[in-house]
């Protein structure tokens, strides 16, 4: 079982700027854990604190139960994969992979055999004597992973390593990374600003915004039960209707909006009399008005995306609305320019405090 | 060349090319050909120049080969210049690394300015400053005596003085090529090496220095050539025991009155310097054109 990572009230201040504040979460051993957030949200700072490139100004980081305070990156059971990959361009691939072993004083034969073993793992057998510059983007990616795995880390830290790849390759590498993680059992902490990447790969995700931890949970949980307005809007597409909660009963909030009364599941901190927002996913909106609640909109355009189509409309209060319609149901799609009614179930809507 | 003609027209371009050719022929080629010519001919009284004794031979070069003192000073100059290059590298590398990877932009600006200002003063005057600092009753001895590090004033002129003066004179020639090379190294590579457990020494040996190899070779070649051809530092800061080969060449010209032998000595120094430079570049796998950049 590989090591767990715990962050306890971790904060980082650069001069007058507070990059990260009061972040606590536990990553379990062998877990694929993502930290998701827009650029500048502090996720890279957290990764660099776990790696040991930065020492937190507040709080404590433990890896495998051991306090990491004062330990540098070369003294921690972690290995990092950099956004730029940072392969050593003047060393052949096998020396790149074996660099960590070289630093540990392994003999040349030992290094070579370990490198060959790892090249097999990443399906690049026979590429050991090439230079990194001769490899494709995806191959370099795999070499960077092998180089990090060569030191047998307990925790692998990945700083948006797929961001430089094109879409097809990125999707392929997602699956490959996921499979590699399951095979090696190493704890992965993965940084990304791409929510679909995080949803597709992770066991659990921590969502960050402006240096503050918003929510930690499994992908489904974040998507279905966002705890904060930021999570509701950042993770996946959503429609927002502002209003005032008139009643909260048995976890269901009744919301008085400019578009009529609607009901949705009450999120944390919602109380009667409060200004709230109701969030409903595009795929929860059903054309034709079937459901517990209804929304009327003028349909402006329909974008065909292949498996589904997105109907963009405008609500009576002037705000935008988007509904996802399965391609197989397109026959019953509303006409462009016309008015249409969309229905949604109460259990598919979430109500969160305004703010 | 075609680009030049296209841009400036035939007349102006021809003038440019002619000027460059005249410069090369008059200022570079002619003196060197004259040096070779002088080196290969005997030193004769004016009346015999062009006479039956005025024939080409290697006598002047052979004189150096058979003259034990000159020969040893020659080889000493070569290895001492190599040592100067090495010592300058040792002084400059940490500074270049710090400037390129750690210093803030304002720190870099101040440091580079501080390093450049002394170069606004003539080399002879800068060396004279060291002459004063290293004098027997000079400030360095006074400082060391007052700190109790030495009991008697030291005589710094000689090998130590020449080394100090040369390192000081050539710092920028070493610093800038290395600084430029290290500056282009991606910080993440250094971090990756550290993350993989490498010691500081290994990070430099395996990652930073290989990346900066062209810059290091350039700096060393510059410094070596300047040191081997240096006259001021050994003349001012040297002692009879630390004679430099350039001083012997000088003596043949201006005291011995034998220009031919002086030219032969200079030619040998030039050839050996060229060999050392080309071998160094070959070993470092750097092209001469990279150095010129």
TrEMBL record, chain A:
One of its GO terms (molecular function) is ATP binding. Residues 5-235 form the ABC transporter domain. GO terms for cellular component: ATP-binding cassette (ABC) transporter complex. SMART domains: AAA. One of its GO terms (biological process) is quaternary ammonium group transport. Keywords: ATP-binding, Nucleotide-binding, Transport. It holds the Pfam family ABC_tran. It comes from the Bacteria. Belongs to the ABC transporter superfamily. This is ABC transporter ATP-binding protein. It comes from Neoaquamicrobium microcysteis.
TrEMBL record, chain B:
Keywords: Cell membrane, Membrane, Transmembrane, Transmembrane helix, Transport. It is a multi-pass membrane protein. The chain crosses the membrane at residues 12-34, 78-99, 105-121, 128-150, 156-179, 214-237, 262-284. It holds the Pfam family BPD_transp_1. It is found in: Cell membrane. The keyword Coiled coil does not apply. Belongs to the binding-protein-dependent transport system permease family. CysTW subfamily. This is ABC transporter permease. It comes from Neoaquamicrobium microcysteis.
């Amino acid at each position: 079982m590989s090591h767990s990572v715990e962050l306890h009230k971790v904060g980082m201040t650069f001069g007058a700027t507070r990059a990260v504040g009061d972040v606590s979460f536990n990553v379990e051993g062998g877990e694929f854990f993502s930290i998701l957030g827009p650029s500048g949200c502090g996720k890279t700072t957290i990764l660099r604190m776990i790696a040991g490139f930065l020492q937190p100004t507040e709080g404590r980081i433990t890896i495998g139960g051991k306090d990491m305070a004062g330990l540098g990156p070369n003294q921690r059971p972690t290995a990092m994969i950099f956004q730029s990959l940072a392969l050593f361009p003047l060393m052949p691939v096998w020396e790149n992979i074996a660099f960590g072993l070289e630093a540990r004083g392994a003999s040349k034969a030992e290094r070579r055999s370990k490198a060959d073993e790892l090249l097999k793992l990443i399906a690049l057998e026979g590429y050991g004597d090439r230079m990194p510059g001769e490899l494709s983007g995806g191959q370099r990616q795999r070499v960077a992973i092998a180089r990090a795995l060569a030191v047998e880390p307990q925790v692998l830290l990945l700083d948006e390593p797929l961001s430089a790849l094109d879409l097809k390759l990125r999707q392929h590498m997602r699956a490959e990374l996921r499979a590699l993680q399951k095979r090696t059992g190493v704890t992965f902490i993965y940084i990304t600003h791409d929510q679909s990447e995080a949803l597709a790969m992770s066991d659990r995700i921590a969502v960050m915004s402006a240096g503050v931890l918003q929510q930690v949970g499994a992908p489904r949980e974040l998507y279905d039960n966002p705890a904060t307005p930021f999570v509701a809007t950042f993770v996946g597409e959503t429609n927002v209707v502002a209003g005032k909660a008139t009643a909260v009963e048995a976890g269901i909030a009744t919301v008085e909006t400019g578009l009529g009364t609607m009901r949705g599941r009450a999120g944390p901190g919602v109380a009667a009399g409060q200004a709230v927002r109701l969030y409903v996913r595009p795929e929860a909106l059903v054309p034709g008005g079937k459901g517990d609640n209804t929304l009327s909109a003028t349909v402006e355009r329909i974008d065909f995306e292949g498996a589904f189509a997105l109907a963009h409309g405008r609500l009576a209060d002037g705000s935008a609305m988007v509904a996802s319609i399965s391609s197989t149901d397109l026959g019953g799609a509303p006409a462009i320019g016309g008015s249409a009614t969309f229905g949604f179930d109460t259990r598919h809507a979430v109500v969160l405090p305004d703010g | 060349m075609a680009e030049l003609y296209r841009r400036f027209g035939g007349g102006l371009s021809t003038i440019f090319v002619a000027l460059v050719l005249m410069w090369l022929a008059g200022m570079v080629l002619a003196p060197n050909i004259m040096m070779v010519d002088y080196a290969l001919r005997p030193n004769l009284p004016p009346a015999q120049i062009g006479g039956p004794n005025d024939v080409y031979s290697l006598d002047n070069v052979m004189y150096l080969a058979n003259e034990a003192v000159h020969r040893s000073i020659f080889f000493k100059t070569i290895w001492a210049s190599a040592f100067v290059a090495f010592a300058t590298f040792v002084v400059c590398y940490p500074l270049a690394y710090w400037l390129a990877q750690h210093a803030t932009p304002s720190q870099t600006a101040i440091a580079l300015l501080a390093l450049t200002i002394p170069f606004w003063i003539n080399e002879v005057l800068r060396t004279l400053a060291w002459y004063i600092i290293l004098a027997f009753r000079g400030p360095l001895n006074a400082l060391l005596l007052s700190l109790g590090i030495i009991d008697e004033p030291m005589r710094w002129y000689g090998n130590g003085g020449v080394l100090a003066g040369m390192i000081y004179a050539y710092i920028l020639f070493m610093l800038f090529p290395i600084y430029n090379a290290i500056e282009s190294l991606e910080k993440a590579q250094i971090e990756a090496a550290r993350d993989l457990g490498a010691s500081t020494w290994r990070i430099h040996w395996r990652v930073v220095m290989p990346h900066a190899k062209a810059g290091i070779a350039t700096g060393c070649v510059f410094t070596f050539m300047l040191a081997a051809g240096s006259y001021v530092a050994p003349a001012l800061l040297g002692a009879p025991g630390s004679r430099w080969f350039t001083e012997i060449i000088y003596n043949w010209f201006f005291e011995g009155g034998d220009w031919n032998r002086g030219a032969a000595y200079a030619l040998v120094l030039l050839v050996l310097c060229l060999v050392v430079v080309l071998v160094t570049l070959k070993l470092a796998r750097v092209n001469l054109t990279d150095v010129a950049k």
